[in-house]
Amino acid sequence: MLTCLPGKEAEGRKRARELEKLRLEAERLKIEAEEKDKERQIEIEKLKFEAERLKVENEEKERKRQIEMEKLKLESEEREKAREAAEREKEAERKHQLEMKKLEAEMAAVGPPTAEQATAKAPRLPAFVDEKDDLDAYLLRFEIFAASSQWAEDKWAAHLSALLTGRALEVYSRLPEDEARSYTAVKQALLKRYNLTEEGFRAKFRQNKAEEGESPQQFIVRLTSYVYLERWVELAESSKSYEGLRDLFVKEQFLEACPRDLAVRLREQGPSSLDELAGMAQHYLEAHERELGKKEEEKETIPVRNRTQLGTASGIATCYTCGDPSHFARDCPVSKEARPTGASSIFTSTGGKAGQQATFIVAGQVEGKKVPLLLDTGSTQTLIREDLVDAGKIAEDQEITEKPRLLDCSTAAPPEN
């Protein structure tokens, strides 16, 4: 039995070596499997990243494509607008040429042209340049020229049309035939298109100043002539009589003096007489429950301050009743124990005068003693520390019968409970 032991030991060692070999092989296979799994995960992440990149690129391409499409659409719309504008201009020019030919035919049918008619064919005036010339001044020059040339007024509109360009020509071409032959109708349409209104000429008349190098006589002529005053009166549809000018100036003064919202409403409605103006104003005031001469009370804005700002100069918040920093006035035992119901003329204040910036804390006096006063816009009672008032002046259920007087000599009514 002793001779068998070495063989068994050798066999055991051999088996152990094989087991170790198998264990190492299994460990190697496990490591290889983990490495392959890591590589697979890395590959998956790469694929995800690539997919995300492609998605972002596609979205960017789509965004650029949409921008390009919008750009092309806008360019197409601009070209279409330009084409339509050119067609309108061309159509207006065509109508103008037809009108001129028709006018020439009518003049030819009458007989040989007179000196007046020969002059009318070709006005010696420059064309009106849109966005460069002043329309009102241009029309004034045209009327002076037409009158001096002794043109028949029924031909003024046709002669003016030969001098119009741009928006002005477009306005003329859109008028009905009967209005296009009337200089007054053409003029009103042009003034309306260029916003030359009653209010505009009124403002120019009131605000205009002498120009550099202008003499007093020239300035007066410019104010009183057709340029400002007469244009204001004309557009206001007011007569040039004393009564008409009186009503115009009274209307202006009324609108300047009344509240802004009322003035805006009245200008929108455009009353034609003082009676109509008064009626409209009365209806507006009644609807808003207001009076004409009573100004709306302006609410004073009180600056918001934090508790640190409302405390002492050192920045520590304290009780406004007893000065103790351990609590605030709403929790003060002193104010809870002693709540006087009233006092008579015992507090004065050095608060700022009207118009000065509002503040919460002001200096004042109580019974001749200088004390800080807290202004509380939400308080319904005036509270005073008991030790600041003589005991004989404090009585239960005493009502305030006098108004407190401030140091600036103003008074304030006691709050109503």
Can you give a write-up of this model?
This is SAFB-like transcription modulator. It comes from Branchiostoma belcheri. Keywords: Metal-binding, Zinc, Zinc-finger. The protein has 417 residues and is mainly alpha-helical. Among the domains are: 70 residues; 74 residues; 55 residues, no CATH class. 55% of the residues lie in helices and 4% in strands. The protein contains 15 helices and three strands. It has a three-stranded antiparallel beta sheet with strand order 1-2-3, with no helix packed on it. Strand 2 and strand 3 form a beta hairpin. Helix 8 packs antiparallel against helix 10. It is flat. It starts with a helix and ends in a 43-residue tail after the last strand. The C terminus is likely disordered.
